[in-house]
Amino acid sequence: MLANRHLAQAVADQGFGQFFAQLRYQAPRYGTRLVEADRWFPSSKRCSTPGCGYVKQDLTVQDRAWTCPACGMMHDRDVNAANNLKRLATETALPVATRPAMTATMWATADIGGKVTPVRHEATPESLLSASGQEEFGDHQRSPNL
User: Fold this and answer.
1) How far is CA 21 from the centre of its chain?
2) How many helices (H) and strands (E) does the chain have?
3) Which of 47, 56, 81, 112 is the 20 to 30 Å CA partner of 123?
4) Where along the chain is composition biased (Basic and acidic residues) (predicted)?
5) Rounded to whole angstroms, how far apart are CA atoms 33 and 93?
6) CA atoms of 91 and 50, how far apart (whole Å)
7) Which of the residue ranges 51-55, 78-82, 100-104 would you say has the lowest mean pLDDT?
8) What DSSP string runs through 48-95?
9) pLDDT digits (tens, 9 = 90+) for 13-41
């Protein structure tokens, strides 16, 4: 990315920081719940076999696969991490019938620190087909000088 490794890391961290800030802001707007794993959550090191949960402390980045000494299950590092993160998200999630997405009235009265601004029209399946991004609805009046 950049020649300066420390600067590249700072830029990358800032990008992810902004990304997660947007996720935290937008999740309640759409009635979803954002589940974040702690930075030090051992997603790759914890055995994802149900009922086991053994944590292999000496797992290094170079170890792409490992066998759990407690249950004998062989794990691919990335698949194991994905299974552990999926379990974290589903075990900490609320039941399916949680609160609905926020309505316009709820947004108008919510104290979330943001400003609600009106939009010209809502996205419809027809408007999503337009790649130009220009409004295609309604009659437009042209100036007589054109």
Assistant:
1) 10
2) 4, 2
3) 112
4) 137-146
5) 8
6) 12
7) 100-104
8) -STTT--B-TT--TT--EEE-TTT--EEEHHHHHHHHHHHHHHHHSPP
9) 777 788 888 889 999 999 888 888 888 99
